[in-house]
Amino acid sequence: MADAGGISDAAAVERTLAGEREAYRVLVERHSAYVYRVAYRMTGNSHDAEEVVQEAFLRAYQKLQQFAGNANFGTWVYRIAANYAIDRLRQKKNEDARREVASRAAEDESEIDPLEKLKDTAPSPERLAGNAQLARKMKEALDALTPAERTAIVMRHWDGCGIEEIAAVLKSNSSAAKNTVFRAVQKLRQALKPFAEGRGAAKAVGTEL
Amino acid sequence: MKHTTEEELFAYREGEMKKRETIAAHLQECGECREELERIEEVFRALNAMPAPDPGAEYGAKVWRQIANRLPEHRSDRHPERGANWWSAWFAPRRLLAVGVAVVLLALAFYAGRRTSPKPDGGEIADAGKIRERVLLVAVGEHLGKSEMILMELSNAQPAEGGKKLINISTAQKRAEDLVEENRLYRQTALEGGDNAIANTLDELQRVLLDVANSPAEVTPAQFESIQKRITAQGILLKVRVVRQELRAESEGKKTEPARNDSAAKARNKV
């Protein structure tokens, strides 16, 4: 850590703006891992997360003049990453929807047994036992949220952001943002219900340790 | 009162003030709604259990390599006055505290990340990690101590006689406001470090602190009493004390693993 040992974020911003490009390196090296974790939770995979991180730091650099200094750099680059991630999620959802329409049209032509399709997706108590399965189920449930819902729950729960902050990223008002967080929780809860009930049933018959 | 809705319970959990007293009173009497609230908590605990992979200690350097040649140089033609304002904003006392905490935490999180990533020459790093972990334990312990103090002061204070005079809680409120920010950062670090038991307590503490911070500066004795009730209803003081004691024991190097595991296991069993 030859870089970050010395100067503060504020000094690094100041020096970058004064024309010292290397000073920005301190900020990138210091905040990348944190931005990555946020990006990963929002996009759900490391490939997209890495792209979000790069883009966030590029955009932050371009906008550095606008950085008012009344926020800290970490929070600021976090918001830029969240803004970019939500745009990406929206774009991806649209593409997925288009692809799904196309593949459904193709499926209609070749008749596939609908039971075959269900086999891999229907949850069973065996498949849902244990933490790894819970995490997988949660990942699926997060993937099924709308981009706004996913952004809202990630910002609220993991990063403890205020409703106003979430509303700014969602470009909505605070009561709409509050509703979005609630809707996300409601959907996650619905998705996890089979898991919770499965455990409850196991406890009831004494099969769980 | 009829049962609370899912939305009301969620808003209550989020620290919303609307209908807070009514819901709190109902929860004390109604086991069904308490269970419903517990089921909502399950969702958050399941979220806590979701890991985000650690990109590794060299990740920052990698990002820099990826973007360095795409950065044009900033021209150094900035207005000098702007620089002055800029610095004074950073040195405003409250900002300075939050920034200081954030910097310490980021450094700690970074070292914790290094400590947990497998390294062939891990001995030295593990030592550095341990020291920093201890620093964090002490910091969180102090934070809990400060929170405990405010909550104790509030819950032990006598409401004014006659029930008419307004009570000024602006001092406690300001302190709670400052602690909210700190609490948010510590909770985040605990989550990232996988310490879900501490994260959950900090989560509950956050709601109580927000409650105090969002109250009016002057409250009627009735409002004051309801704040006190909310503090006691959540049993947060006890939880804060328990975690604080565990942290103190741990930072002093005592073996407290079994106790920690117990509380974590209890929290998990609730799921």
Question: Explain this structure to me?
Answer:
The complex is a heterodimer of chains A (209) and B (271). Mean pLDDT of chain A is 81; it is low at 114-129 and 198-209. In chain A, 76% of the residues lie in helices and 0% in strands. Chain A is built from ten helices and no strands. With 209 residues, chain A is mostly helical. Chain B has helices at residues 6-13, 20-29, 31-48, 59-67, 80-90, 93-116, 122-156, 170-192, 196-213, 221-233, 236-251, 257-270, and strands spanning 167-168, 218-219. Chain B is built from twelve helices and two strands; from the N terminus they run H-H-H-H-H-H-H-E-H-H-E-H-H-H. Chain B is mainly α and 271 residues long. In chain B, helix 6 runs parallel beside helix 8, helix 7 (122-156) packs antiparallel against helix 8 (170-192) and helix 9 packs across helix 11. Chain B starts with 5 loop residues before the first helix and ends with a helix. At the A-B interface, helix 1, helix 2, helix 3, helix 7 and helix 8 of A face helix 1, helix 3, helix 4, helix 5 and helix 6 of B.
Write a short abstract of this structure:
The complex is a heterodimer of chains A (209) and B (271). Helix content of chain A is 76%, strand content 0%.
One letter per element, helices H and strands E, the order of chain A comes to HHHHHHHHHH
Shape of chain A: elongated
Tell me the number of helical segments of chain B per DSSP (H or I, 4 or more residues long).
12
Radius of gyration of chain B: 22 Å
What do the pLDDT scores of chain B average to? 73
Percent of sequence in beta strands of chain A: under 5%
What is the molecular shape of chain B? globular
